[in-house]
Amino acid sequence: MRLRARIVSLTAVAVIAVGVAACAPAAGKDNPRPGKQVAIAPTSPPATPSRPSPSVSPVIQVAGAPGGVKAKGAVLADAATGQILWGRDLGTERPMASVTKVMTALLVLQGGNLGQQIRIPKAAFTYAWKNGGETASLRPGDQLTAQQLLAALLLPSGADAAYTLANAYGPGMNAFVAKMNATAVTMGMTHTHFTSPDGLPYPTETATYSTPSDLLTLGLAAMKYPVFRSTVNLRFYHLPKGKGHHQYWWDNTDGLIGSYRGALGIKTGYTDVAKHCLLFEAARNGRTLIGVVLASPTTGVNAGAQDAEKMLNWGFRLRPRAPVPG
């Protein structure tokens, strides 16, 4: 199997009226808590110096829902306020495949020292090959900076880059995964669990999982970092051959980048069980929307992006009514 990888402090609770249809998939490992399409106001991610946290938004009235979205789990929100505009099964836990790598990137960014040189271990290649993961074709023995490895992690979704970064910043895989789970708890992502820094399906297909609501928290946190934002927005990354390393060329697996006007990122994910997953953000006319799709059916390599595009088109057309008094 190949791996195509790829909210407002609760001082007030905001409820959005959304016209939605019931959506209750069958229960099972991939769907332990089936539910309905809902709209709620989530808690905001921890503040960072790079971008102010959303403030509490007023209750708004929203009519309708984006049509044609096939993803089993989804959410769309205003990135400036954290206000959720539409959601489907927000709290249902599902595997998220390589969207996992956003948490890996966040921990590296929090760890800092992005200019440090990191040698690519031979074990990184073995790890990716053994587990059937996508790679950035990193050459064992090459030395790249942590920032360059972030590009290798986020654009071509390299499991070899994930291994290398986890090994350096854990230090070691086990310590790094423990940090991922501890950070998730700190961020209020109570329905998220990691078993790897990359989202590969082991020890089981559903061992690493999250929810649309939790991944919205993660996306908002990661996009506060300028380095992260400027990386996931790239169509490709070219690293010329230099002292200590070969030449590299990494394409972005995000089908929205370069094809959807205003697309800013963020990260794709795919496994046979997780199906197509995408954490995404786009901006138009001074407004920025962020969202998640989980388990978009396998109708093509850009199935997640197609669902995201429908959600974004609906969201950018949306004209909320006046805030409800009180």
List keywords for this structure.
326 residues; alpha+beta; five-stranded antiparallel sheet; two-stranded antiparallel sheet; 11 strands
Describe what you observe in this structure.
The protein contains eight helices and eleven strands. The strands form four sheets. It has a five-stranded antiparallel beta sheet with strand order 2-1-11-10-9, sandwiched between helices. Strands 3-6 form a two-stranded antiparallel ribbon. Helix 1 runs antiparallel to helix 3, helix 3 packs antiparallel against helix 4 and helix 3 crosses helix 7. The radius of gyration is 19 Å and the shape is globular. The N and C termini lie far apart (53 Å). The N terminus is likely disordered.
Put the structure in a nutshell.
Helix content is 27%, strand content 18%. The protein has helices at residues 101-111, 122-130, 146-154, 159-169, 173-186, 212-222, 226-232, 303-317; strands at 73-78, 84-88, 94-95, 117-119, 143-145, 209-210, 236-239, 248-251, 263-271, 275-284, 287-296. Mean pLDDT is 84; it is low at 1-61.
